[in-house]
Prior knowledge:
mainly alpha; NAD; elongated; single chain
Amino acid sequence: MVSIARCECVRKGSNPFSYQQDKFDNTNNIFMTILIDTFCALLITCATLVVQSSNPVYSVLFLILAFFNASALVLLSGHDYMAALFIVLYVGAMCTFFLFAIMILDIKVEPISEKRLKQAPINTIIAIVFALQCKNILNEFSSSFANVELLLNNNPNCIDYLNYELQYCFNSSILDYTTQIYSLGSILYTTYALQLIIASLILLSAMLGSIALTLSRSTTAKGQHIYEQNIRDFKLTITNNV
């Protein structure tokens, strides 16, 4: 029976293993959708707890979890370098620094006041408006692909033609395979070199400003004024106490 079914599939011009492959692809797509929805829900929950938590230490911990979920979403989208950058830069440097700085400081945990509870309806309205705006943006973005979907539905052979063209491009020796790090580096240091230098200067000024703000000068400490010492008269500086 299996050989007869295989012969029928071959005679009709279809792949005998296409059903198993389609089933595997559908299972993989469902699993990826569940993962993306889970990480999105965790990201929204952690971001909400960052704002609502009264303890700043817990806020930083939830911020670290939020960046972990964001890096997982970026990794699922195929950008492995950006996911590693999220972990190393935000979680490894900034959030850990904020966590230790807050733990070292003596911060009093204040309970949720009535003023914050009174502001809850306004915050809810702002959140609903923001969600509706995001929904409108997504609808406009999806409507831009309506013509493409209509074209694919009316021309079933168009997908096969596109697959053939993509297969030809990726199998050709003309295509130069590059990594994401090489692509980002070449774009940053060629096309956006000026913007990169400006961003570096902004970071440098922020670092110098933070050092200047935290530098404490004591008024009781004794210092040496070299210019005033050099312009003084020699006869007035040395006295003969006999």
